Amino acid sequence: MRRWIVLLLSIFLMSCSSAQKKEITLATTTSLQDSGLLEYLIPEFEKDTGIKVKVIARGTGEALEIAKRGDADILFVHSKEKEEEFIKEGYGLKRDEIMYNDFVIVGPKDDPAKVKENASNNPLKAFELIYKSNSVFVSRGDESGTHQREKKLWREININPKWKSYIVSGLGMGQVLNIADEKGGYTLSDRATYITMKKNLSLQIVCEGHPMLKNQYSIVLLNPNKISHKKELAEEFEVWILSDKAKELINNYGIEKYGEPLFKFNGKR
Hints:
Keywords: Signal. The chain has helices at 2-20, 30-34, 37-49, 60-68, 80-88, 115-118, 123-132, 145-156, 173-183, 191-197, 231-241, 244-252, 255-258; strands spanning 23-29, 52-58, 74-77, 92-107, 137-139, 166-168, 187-190, 204-207, 214-222, 264-265. By secondary structure, the chain is an alpha/beta fold.
């Protein structure tokens, strides 16, 4: 009798342990967290699959490093060059584009650099005007996807952003928007985070709508030969995020609350 009790208890503990393992860690960007999208999507994924998701939201550069250390099971990030480098180095298997929005340059209402007047859809000229006017510019400075795009824009106009009013924050998008607002400065933001926060900001969009400002988000699957992780569960997340249900959720997110969608699905199964 005692042996049967021990056996049943062992089976019960093993089943509990197995159930507890149905969890993945998603390393992702602060913009997906700050925009509220993850809070909107993840409960639906958990309900459909029974897989719990732990989110680590950092800049894309840090998210990639977290995955390299084996502290994540899947990536949801937005820096194509860094993602392709990650795969080339053997850490990732493949990259699937999921959705996009765009970056916008935001600044104070008085617009001291006159960006909206002279460069409303030209980000290169906008950056040049900000630099030449010695205006405050708050940078993410954290190797995130947004920071990578900012650095690319500076490189395109051969400007090293080192002037006195250029602030390197090392912070997430929401915090950077608040700093820019407090200091009457400019910054580069993903549109979704700006829209979700704009009612509490005095910042306005001064430059938008250029192809260089497209902001693509992608899933990156990890290489099990390089990184120990929950490969099968991660693949379930990838399949779900590319599903028709996820497509509809993503395309509709923001319409009811903000009057416009914050992301556009462009994934391919």
